[in-house]
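Page 42, continued from yesterday. The earlier attempt failed because a stray header line got pasted into the input along with the sequence. Redoing it now with the clean sequence only.
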Amino acid sequence: MSGLANLQAACAQPLAAAIAARAAGQRVVAYLGSSVPVELIRASGAFALQLAGDPVHETPLSDLYLDPEYDGEIRSLFDQIGAGACNVADLIVIPRSANGLLYLYYSLLELRRLEPGRDFPELLLYDVLNTPNWATARYVLGRTRALHERLGGTPDQLRRAIEQANAVRGALHALDARRRAGRLLGSSWWSALRASRVMAPGDWFDAVEALASETAPARRLMLKGFGQDTPALFLLAESLGANVVADDYPGGTRSVHTLVDEAAEPLAALAEHYQLRVPTVRSTPQAREDAAWLALLDASTSQAVLFYQEEFDDTLGWDYPAQQALLAARGIPQALLGRQSYRSPDQVAQRRVLGDLLERMSA
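This time it went through. Structure tokens are written below.
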């Protein structure tokens, strides 16, 4: 298969590489979100697997146990984990980087209490906080040290894992540069980023090196808001003659934007990185966050911004008016896809809203 086909296959079957690793005798440690130090997992000798939501699957457990206002990604993860679909993992690390993930952790513990016969992996909370102050930094360092002690691994293994993870980030930076230069589709970028979190690093590097140059549409779009568990919006933009050359949502481009400091003490470097350098819905102050995504907008020379809000997302609704005003001051067109269903979004409305935005880009 081609490099892109390998990446797409990994995204379509995200547990495949972990299943193969386990069959070969390797321990598998899964994690959620982008705020868990994957370096600690790999330094322990385990295969690192990121679990993500999947809009395709039914959610009968969530329908039974969770409030309907939980966002779709959390409901999907609750069902996948609670039903045993992620039992390839020996342990699942859940970060406290968003209220939804914290609620998921406690909901799964309650599911285990209510249905003790259910078989799903041990859960571990990584209590990472994202407020930029000295007291928080000390606390996060302590939780990072505790996670390292729980997982295991020597200092040399940890340094090598940091170097490897930085190499992955560097390769993604190069792909992002190709996307901005019009030689990579946004949907291919999405596949490369997602695959980096479910493949063995060596296999991922091989696939990325085999990626052929692509001819992308000339119109340039930024996608911002709720995290994207599928490349559907990227593909929709491409079908309408635009390329998503920048994205800003949890787990997107900015989550791999910064390298971990290889010269610093490893655990201190990881604690600082995942506290301050990986954006989450809890990252503050807002002025710094706005400056970061506006810098990304400028660097990508995006011509418009498409905001995406999931049906039960209670964050973007507060931030959107001020961000809309920032774009208006710059004369940059924008549109909002609001209250989108996680499992069954209105594709006709999406096409209409995006088509109108692209027309305003061209005006």
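Notes: Strands lie at 28-32, 47-51, 91-95, 122-126, 219-225, 242-248, 304-310, 334-340.
Reminder to self: strip header lines before submitting.
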